[in-house]
Amino acid sequence: MGDVILKVEGITKTFPGVTALDDVSFDIRSGEVHALVGENGAGKSTLMKVLAGLHKPDAGEIIYQGAPTQVAGPLDARRKGILLIHQELSLSPELSVAENIYLGAWPTNRFGVLKKRELRRHAASALDALGCGFGPDTRVGTLSVAMQQMVEIARAEAFNANVVIFDEPTASLTDTEKDQLFQTIRGLKARGVGIVYISHKMNEIFDITDRITVLRDGQVQGTVDTAETDLNQVTRMMIGRTLDTYFIRAKAEFGAEVLRVEGLSKAGVFRDVGFSVREGEVLGLYGLVGAGRSEVVETVFGVRKADSGKLYWKGGEIALPSPRQSIDMGMALVPESRKEQGLVLMMGGRENTSLPHLGLFSSVSIMNRPKELAVFEKYRSALSIKTTGPDQAVSQLSGGNQQKFVLAKWLCADPKLIILDEPTRGIDVGSKSAIHELIADLAQKGLAVIVISSEMPEVLGVSHRVLAMSEGAIVAEFEGDAMTEENLIDAVSHHRDDAAA
Ligand SMILES: Nc1ncnc2c1ncn2[C@@H]1O[C@H](COP(=O)(O)OP(=O)(O)OP(=O)(O)O)[C@@H](O)[C@H]1O
Ligand SMILES: [Mg+2]
Questions:
Q1: Which of 98, 105, 160, 270 is most buried (most C-beta within 10 Å)?
Q2: Whole-prediction pTM value?
Q3: Atom of ligand 1 at shortest distance to CA of 386?
Q4: Which class does domain 4-239 fall in?
């Protein structure tokens, strides 16, 4: 670890009704990976937005390369060598890779004419340095999430960054993509770049970081060397208590079959998928990102079309439904991507919570405000959602708190079957168990529940039965004592070896 490159002192930032950062001091050294951890709404993203020129602090100082520095805006930050890679990627899909890398800072000649060749050449060398498999002319909209992230990281090369900040970078990456990202991070580190790493995945924190700073309610709780601390100490600093490591599973009392799927296929996506789920049962769907799990449940719900397959609802065969029919029947799907599918970002949490039942999908809409408020309060306290009040726009909430509202919105719909796609992604370790508890409650009330998760302990901990999915097919099913991590890994990896052979 080298010298301090960037230091903040006494940073305070308030929003109406919230003190997001309260007298925060912290530093980044060259050649280190510095974790920033804390509960949803602790102020992590806000602090990084201050460094990247997106928020002006109310008080405090940024000392960069030894001198007090004003960061005027995101472009200014980039030019100074401070690069933020956002929680939600922020590229322009219709522009090329090269144009995105230099967005807002396109090289021009003295007449202001864009130097296209230079743009391409610089971008190509930045992409080469990272070992990207695509060129500068590729349209960003055609790239996967992992590749788009590489484009953002290429900016670090292009602008010769000294500080690179990653805000929950692995949320939508496959394991292989994560390994590649970690390699890239180690490369940046070896070159003396100071790196800030924000994540709720504690295993990643202990894997890649050198120091850990904990934020809680906008205040720094302390900074520790990763090698000299452990999960218990860090969680205690984050949430004031150690974690319950056990999972809450609903009692296994099953009623009638709610949904059965047979021979569901879609060319190139999934094939011959079949399963069923009963009242009171939690069915886990485990697989790596990209195995086709989301595609299957989206097809069952009617968001996607299948080539063939049969669906039985409460014992009777039905045609593949539209989303509206699914909702009317009593099916709910909580999607993994909150921003695109889950929320109306400009609305408050109260309206978002009650939205599905207020005429978005049905023709009559009568607002029952006291009831709406009661529901809002119930979930706000159950999931410890951090918001100033029922009408605060959801766009102003932290990433994890938005996710909690997506869940609340569907939980109170009172469905017969609820499908939860990665329900705890982006959720802090302290709130995860509250969500597991809610899942158990739903099953105990007689709902059928399907939980998709890439986290093995989670899917094993909450489910009564687990299906393992790999490359578009269900490759194994486990129940009771057979539900172990070894068996799941085995099922998924053997299948992959077979497929490769
Ligand atoms: N633009 C904004 N307007 C109003 N309040 C905001 C705004 N941005 C953030 N906040 C509030 O500041 C607090 C800190 O939010 P921040 O996004 O920094 O949390 P976080 O630690 O990144 O959480 P998460 O882990 O959920 O991403 C939250 O209470 C949030 O609602
Ligand atoms: Mg955040």
A1: 98
A2: 0.82
A3: 29
A4: alpha beta
